[in-house]
């Protein structure tokens, strides 16, 4: 479990950004605050509400120098399928935040939110400052 006021665990992986695959890393966001949140699985009933809410307000976060990244242990292909599914059919629709794939489970494990028995992350939210120091953590 990462400790507050210490460097946040570095990560890199493939995300779906504006409908295309893109490799991203925490280092890409140096100089900005980051809200990194984990959710259990794509295509579940509860997860879309929080992901959509963050996406719908992404511009407000950017206006204060903060980027939001959603992460699960699903693949980037599953993320893309979920984004391409209309909201009325249980999908996300167009997203304004990256959905980061963590198939290796390394990111979830490094942030202390991985259920080792299932390979599925618990819900967790982490605020990382512009110097990539962990400032807040909230997880189940």
TrEMBL record:
Catalytic function, reaction form: a hydroperoxide + [thioredoxin]-dithiol = an alcohol + [thioredoxin]-disulfide + H2O
GO biological processes: cell redox homeostasis; hydrogen peroxide catabolic process; removal of superoxide radicals
Residue positions of the active site: 47
GO cellular component: cytosol
Keywords, in A-Z order: Disulfide bond, Oxidoreductase, Peroxidase, Redox-active center
Annotated Thioredoxin domain residues: 2-140
Domain of life: Eukaryota
Matching CDD domains: PRX_Typ2cys
PROSITE patterns: THIOREDOXIN_2
InterPro entries according to UniProt: AhpC/TSA (IPR000866), Peroxiredoxin (IPR050217), Peroxiredoxin_AhpC-typ (IPR024706), Thioredoxin-like_sf (IPR036249), Thioredoxin_domain (IPR013766)
Alphabetized GO MF terms: thioredoxin peroxidase activity
EC numbers on record: 1.11.1.24
Family assignment from sequence similarity: Belongs to the peroxiredoxin family. AhpC/Prx1 subfamily.
Name of the protein in question: thioredoxin-dependent peroxiredoxin
Native source species: Haematobia irritans
């Amino acid at each position: 479990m990462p400790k507050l006021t210490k460097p946040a665990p570095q990560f890199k992986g493939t995300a779906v950004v504006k409908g295309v695959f893109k490799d991203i890393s925490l280092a890409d966001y140096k100089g900005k605050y980051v809200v990194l949140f984990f959710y259990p699985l794509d295509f579940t009933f509860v997860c879309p509400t929080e992901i959509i809410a963050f996406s719908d307000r992404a511009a407000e976060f950017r206006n204060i120098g903060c980027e939001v990244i959603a992460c699960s242990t699903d693949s980037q292909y599953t993320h893309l399928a979920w984004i391409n599914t209309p909201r009325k059919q249980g999908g996300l629709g167009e997203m304004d935040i990256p959905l980061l794939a963590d198939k290796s489970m390394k990111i979830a494990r490094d942030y202390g939110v991985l259920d080792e028995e299932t390979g599925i992350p618990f819900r967790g939210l982490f605020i990382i400052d512009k110097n990539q120091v962990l400032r807040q953590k909230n997880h189940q």
